[in-house]
Write a structure and sequence with these properties.
453 residues, alpha+beta, Triger factor/SurA peptide-binding fold, 3 domains, 4-stranded antiparallel beta sheet, 11 strands, 43% helix, PPIase_dom_sf, signal
Length: 453
Amino acid sequence: MQAVNRSSSFKRALITIGSLAALAGALAAPGAMAQNSAQGQIVIPDDVKIFGNDNPNVRRATAVVNGDVITGTDVDQRLALIIAANKGKISEEEMKRLRLQVLRNLIDETLQIQEAKASEIDVSQAEIDQSYARVAAQNFNQNTSAMDAYLKRIGSSPASLKRQIRGELSWRALLQRNISPFINVSDDEVNEMLARLKAAKGTDEYRLGEIYLSATPDARQQVYQNASQIVDQLKQGGSFVAYARQYSQASTAAVGGDLGWIRLAQLPPELATVAREMEPGQLVGPIEVPGGFDILYLIDKRQVLTADPRDAILSLKQISISFPQGTTEAQAGQKAEAFANAIKAAKGCGDVDKVASGIGAQVVTNDQVKARDLPGPIQNAILQLSPGETMPPFGSVKDGVRILMLCGRDDPQQADQGPSFEQLQAQLEDDRINKRAQMYLRDLRRDAIIEYD
């Protein structure tokens, strides 16, 4: 995981069953919830064959882990989840790398299940079925029958996802018994952290996603090329969370690469310099850091313990017109200008419905729009408006033209005082449990007997 070569202040997240909720991105994270990918501790021979068989009834061994078989069908069914999450837009070269990563994930999952069993920890089928039903209801708004049908349709299976859930529950129970009782965070440590947080009030905080790939000096160029290909896939619409879970060798892989809210001082200098110039939604990489390469994605930005204007609740009216088929760009431009002038003449939100009716425009009202949920350019512009003012028109010949009018704004209350003592203590405990869990899994990998077909 190269944790020794990187900032120890990176946020680490304990793997919990809550991570199953992240399956909402079309089940984008096969295998990742029950493990953390680690740097090269599992050696896969150059001549290993990943058997992908279209017939689910034909099962051939890809790897045997301490006597338990991982088949080509197992790999295919997990891989199908990633393919579905990326809408099938995965190159042949990318597919080969994904197969190897999925196999590594399944090996870790197998080791975790075996260790739980050896420790006489039993996860009942009823617990697994309950978690499976929760995923179906919370993330897909459907029952388990519909979930079963969806998984089969994309080439996966309910059994594959349920095995993943078994690994997650088994590992969590194992950590709760063998590690959690021996973790202690003192009151002084928590109070010191709270003091540092208050001292940082008003400074910038960044919520970053990362994909970290370790690289030895002789493999540097190859890893750089792999990282560049991942960046290309992401820019073409690939899921950052899915790629982080499958490729990242940082402990944050289990939570889709999410580093949480951090300050630039917590980052290695190479990353801090880049992050300072990033805007929310921007992707940058590969960036060379000690021990490998990083890909950064800026999820959001805020100021510590300070009310964020983007949390304001807006009351908006959207006025829109459409263009008849065959309208040219020039004609659309003229109509959009006339439309904007007409709406500009309206005397605030109380008058705009009447004006819109006179020109054949449609009006939609929404009193509960959070500013931060709007697209970046619109978000910034609308926060500068006073009630009754409008944004410039936007749209296209195909989709028509829209104008947003601000009717009211409820600014966020003064930011709270940050996490409570109990919340911060729990976070520090979780971080320490996760670090111990990483060491535990490394030991299991090191002692495992793995045969490849």
